[in-house]
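SAMPLE LOG
Freezer: B-3
Tube label: C17
Construct: single chain, 318 aa
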Amino acid sequence: MDIGLSRVYELASRSSRIAITGAIITFGILDLFSLDISLSLQILIAVIALLVGIPHGAIDHLIAIPRESRNRFVLFILFYVLLAIAAGFVIATWNQLGFQLIIVISALHFGFGDAAFKNEWNGSRAITKDSFLKLCAYALPAGFLPVILPLTDSRALSALNRINPEISGWSGSINQTLRNITLALALIGLLLLLLTKNFQASIDLLLLLILSLLAPPLIAFAVYFGCWHAVRHTARLVPKLPKATLFAQSGNSFKAFLSAVIPGLYALIGTIFLALGLMVFRPEYFDTGLLWTVLVIIWALTIPHMLTTAKFDLQLFK
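STRUCTURE (predicted):
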């Protein structure tokens, strides 16, 4: 990888680790002194963190289809929007089923996306049996830790009830089983990564494990989404955007990163207005609050975003 692009990836990796470490220290101190954050404040922090992460998935149309091919570009936009609307309708209509599907899809998207981030940074393309084992050892726990552990935490029940009572019992009788499987994946992954001397990936898994166990569930997931997943995915967009690439090659990593964020800001503004509008005009679907509405929109966009991302993820995993 070009040294300029490598520095962008390094910036993203370092920034995401600092953010997660800061959250761990903050909630560690609060826990030490037995201080609690009110649920309302947790929801506010979660909304802000989720909104921060929205722009990273808003420029799929710029990287998936060459803009000089107008017909393909228009068809891609049309398909993307229709798929997002369909996904949003399913989630808003069948809350629990939609939530369960999104949990699985998101965990896989997060984990293998982060693994692809590391592969790109290392310049690795050929996947052997050994490298595939290391890939899964990292990708599975990296995706499921920040999703399953917070959502199966006993503290999550009141938060999920506040967001939408329909999803509070999403895990049913297998709640503890899901939790145990996720912890087992994390421990096995850490062991394999340490045995293969992949210390950087081991540090990442350890940070995600501690965050998921320590921080309040809502905040744990939201901080991960906005400050880890979104940051690392944005870095992956830099080599696909000409202006951002030029900044990276000139050694200005921050401007390169910013150039990959700015084109997606319209989605952040649009999401805020759309969420407020849905709450006003379709209260029968979105009467449980702003966070649920924002989550439905994000999850609806996750489906086409995941398919688009998978296109260039698979190029790294051939």
